[in-house]
Amino acid sequence: MKPFDYSDIDNYYNKAYWDDPGVKSGYSGMTKTLGGPWHEAACRWFDSAIPVKGKSLLDAGCGLGHFMYGFADLGADVCGIDVSEFCCRFIGEHCTLPVFRSRLENAQMILPESRDIVFCSATMEHIPQEHVERVFQNFIRIVKPGGIIFLEIDTVPDTEREFPEESHCNIRPWDSWFEEISRPVYNWAALPQVEIDLYTTTEFPGFPLPQWRFAVLRRL
Q1: CATH number at residue 51
Q2: Domain residues for 48?
């Protein structure tokens, strides 16, 4: 598989990425639905331990907005951010939820301390390692003191995938991600009981997916 060209990431996540399995990813027909029952159930799962009603929530790496719709239905004040021109246009054409187009290592249009929750799912594995610290520091900048940052990361290697994904340029074991997240440079602290509550709930056993791991962090 050819090396991922991060300089062209703005144009990478196009319709083929979301609709045609094996072309760029394993996704199939994602532009045919807005949200859908799986993402709605995932948002309810999240809400069971981290209530979102009345909270301001940023979906960081929002893609087509599937989680945005689910969180909005639960009463959150939702906005999204994504680098993809196609994704941002898609959201703008299908709903009124605000979306910002930017790389997560930039994201300067999101005001400091403006969100109660930063939700980031299936995104960090697409970010080259040299940008990871900047992305995490932006999440810390954006969330309010005491606010929540949720990081879910796909750790499944290409050798275990039916459709390897070129843009998974930072697939690595969870232990390595945990070491990064635990660095003292980040002004956050883990919430292990909330993580346990989410991992052990039987309400929605399909999330996280096998070999996907997550951290729940509170900004200090």
Answers
A1: 3.40.50.150
A2: 33-219
Number of folded domains that form the chain: 1
For residue 50, name the pLDDT band (cuts at 50, 70, 90): very high
Q: Is residue 117 part of a domain?
A: yes
> How far apart, in Å, are the Cα atoms of 67 and each of 31, 44, 113, 158?
14, 10, 22, 25
Give me the half-sphere count of Cα atoms (radius 13 Å) on the Cβ side of residue 162.
5
Indicate whether this model's pTM tops 0.70: yes
Is 7 domain-assigned? no
C-alpha 183, offset from chain centre: 20
How does pLDDT run across 116-166, given as a tens digit for each residue? 999 999 999 999 999 999 999 999 999 999 999 999 999 999 899 999 999
Q: Note whether residue 24 is domain-resident.
A: no
Query: What's the pLDDT at 206?
Result: 67
Q: Measured between alpha carbons, how far is residue 184 from residues 74, 129, 133, 179, 199 in Å?
A: 34, 17, 12, 10, 25
Establish if 93 belongs to a structural domain.
Answer: yes
